[in-house]
Amino acid sequence: MASDKTTRRGFLEFVLGGGVIATLGAIFYPMFKYITPPPVAEAKLSQLKLSFTRADIEAEKQKAKYFKYGRHLGIIFLEDKNVLGALSAICTHLQCTVQNRPDWGIIWCACHNGKYSYDGKNISGPPPRPLFQFKVKEVGDTIFVSLEDS
Amino acid sequence: MNNKDNVQSGLVKNVYRWIDDRFQINALVDYMSHKEVPVHRHSAFYYFGGIALFLFIVQVITGILLLMYYRPGADSAYESVRFIITNVSFGWLIRALHSWSANLMIFAVFVHMFSVYFTSAYRKPRELTWVSGMLLLALALFFGFSGYLLPWNQLSFFATRVGTGMAGIAPVIGEKLLIILRGGEEVTGATIGRFFGLHVAILPGIFTVLLSAHLIFIQRQGMSEPLEWKNKGAHEKRYIKFFPSFLMRDLLVWLIVLNVLAVLAVVFPDGIGLVHWPLGIKADPFAPPPAVIRPEWYFMFAFQALKFLPAHILFIEGELLGMGVFTVGGIIWALVPFLDKKSSKGQKSKFFQAFGCFVLAFIIVMTFLGYILK
Amino acid sequence: MLYRIILFLGFFAAFQTTYAATSNCLTCHREFEDKSGPSYKITQDIHFQKGLGCVDCHGGDATLDDMDAVRAQKNWRGVPNHLQVPEFCARCHSNAKYMHNHNPMLPTDQLEKYKTSVHGKRLFRKKDMKVANCISCHTVHEINNAKAPHSSTYPLNVPFTCGKCHANAKYMKGYNIPTDQLEDFKQSVHGQALLVKKDLGAPACNSCHGNHGAAPPGVQSLAAVCGNCHAIEADLFDNSPHKVAFEENDYPMCETCHSNHKIVKPNDSFVGDKKPALCVECHSYDDGTNGLATAKAISRALSELVATQAQAKKVLDNAALKGMMTTDEEFRLNEVNQVLIHARSLVHTINADSVVAEAEKGIKKADTVKINASALIGEYYFRRKGLALATLFITILAIALYIKIKRVDKKLAGK
Questions:
Q1: C199 within domain boundaries
Q2: Of the four, B31, B98, C50, C363, which is 20 to 30 A from B58 by CA?
Q3: Which tens digit of pLDDT belongs to each residue from B337-362?
Q4: How far is CA C364 from the centre of its chain?
Q5: What ipTM score was computed for the predicted complex, to two decimals?
Q6: What residues make up the domain containing C383?
């Protein structure tokens, strides 16, 4: 009788101890995973650091590359006099992706022959609105694009 | 006798003895085990303070975790919160837990406060416990208000603009206060810096001091007994030991709350219904404000009451008068233990019971109207 | 200061209008005309608004109050008949020097162009009294700039301006041309864009037919006309074997597959080796051109891309519905759509390899979306399972704790 009681008591202590450990495990596992740095170790800022350099843009046949800015697609391109410009890459007519035409010195949408100047103004064809501009800043080899003036 | 039973295994026993040798814990445990908690039909309300405490601990832990990735600033706050919920493993969970437990904590605090109020538990000798509790409530509300802005999304931006704007209508100091709060004329990146400092350093510091005082008061004085017990014989009163009986029950309640919290955070990581905090789109001062700018639910009654006031009452601006009434009301509420002379003599004050009912009804009705009226 | 200038200009404009309105022409004519008469309508006319009066077109002298005396004036031009209208307008509009002083932006070659149009040829050579002249399209006494939304020549109004005659079977009787162009146009992708979506970039009748020189585009010029907007497609077509073949057979280029007024939104079923594909209209497997084999390969590549895209979208939608963050994948799916647009353009090369290569690029991207979206859904279930496990642990602990409490209570009560 007495031994039976001890076993029961022992079992309860075991479940209690196990439960505490398991619960602590359930609490600490996500916490441990959380503090493990993710593959990209920091948040991207609204000033976007591009993963390529000016040389990469110059190497492109169209003298332009695309970049992802939040939910938006942008295009960065070599203007004349080697100035870098960046615009939204989404045509304001029917949302096709625009491209650089270094031979014409304009940004061009192939879908319906829409044309934009390098500062984003819709200058020909169906586009109803200009493309919005990104600010480009070069620090050494690194290119930053942002929407703000900073 | 009792203590020895609770110290079982050899190792634990030795460690306990080692510490006890130096800090005399036995006295403390002895003290706690003599403490008793009354048992009656409203005993369940004794747990709400503990629930609030537990949720506050969750807040501290998840808050510290969020700090590892959060970066204040107009061009990093939103991005870093987005990063937390998309890129960091379990980041979504930590944010969801932080938001859910914040809301549940405020709720638990309100329940705790009204249960104390209606049982007149604030009466002598617990006046300071009540006052410290009121200060803690005020701090908790500031916590909520300052934390709301930190993700720097469209909703929080406009809610904060409206909220801080209310500070601006205070007489004389209003404009100055507004500029100090916002860190400038407008809600900008500078505001995030201020709110961030407030949320993670200043408020927690003050809160910890006050919370310690609040808990020490309770430990010194024990749980308040209901007024009706005054005339009962000793054999009619039932108690349980604070240690271990009440503490173990407390732990059980905490476990249940933890599980509820986990379910809410996993199933509704962005909240649901009126308690909703989707990250949404980044704050843009030039974008049109969202159709409904609503404060968080625990500010709703005040927000709605101010909306009901006419633009001018006599010579005073309606909103100003409303704010004044709320301020005075809050102070009176905090000083109730000193005003309610009857309860300190062991009698229930009809007036203060009615006043409490009025305040509770006012809060419920105004909150309700705030959500149903356009 | 600025305010004063505006005030002055205001007075000046008011004076001008008052001058014209109180000219004797309007005073008398309004006595016997109702509100729809020229003397009332003219106030809506751009010429009147720019300060021209009745006499500037009709001649005479506005200060006289006797109509016989007006008619007796040397410069009296009166009312032109249908055949005289073009030259009546051209008196000013073909006068480069005169127009320069009023609107330097406006061309002065309208009459020249009109003479080359089907309308002009019929009017001048056959003295056709029904064919359109200037006022048929521009209205009379309510003439307005094409940029004014209420103008008959505003892009959104052009189809109905032309349709006034061309969609009127009774009126067009005897010309032996169809009258269903307006109805066809309304159903076309262009008509939908222009009239339903109010896309001012979409073509109206005059975008393809010209306005003053209105005529059906010739077979040879068709690709050039369409190529104004569909530059890539025109370019690809020009370098394709079809160009030569169509020329040899006198097929109307783009129109051969896309029709003319009822240009519906192109559909992948246009291409293929079985009906309803259009390729089989000309090609057969034994025509020695490899045409249907190419069509089949193109069709298969496109439909595979479309199907993969649809699957990817379905998985992604499911993930989004479960509340997962899908922004990155939506981005990628958008890229797939761009690839699809490009692949469809490449159909005009009728080169299976280039279409297949492009389609494969898109399929690869869409597959990535599918994989990543599935991973998101997996993550969703992982969360649920983790929660279930944690709940199990906590529940066991809670139950054990509850039993422990009961026991301790019992023990304490026993003492």
A1: no
A2: B31
A3: 999 988 888 888 899 999 999 999 99
A4: 33
A5: 0.82
A6: 291-414
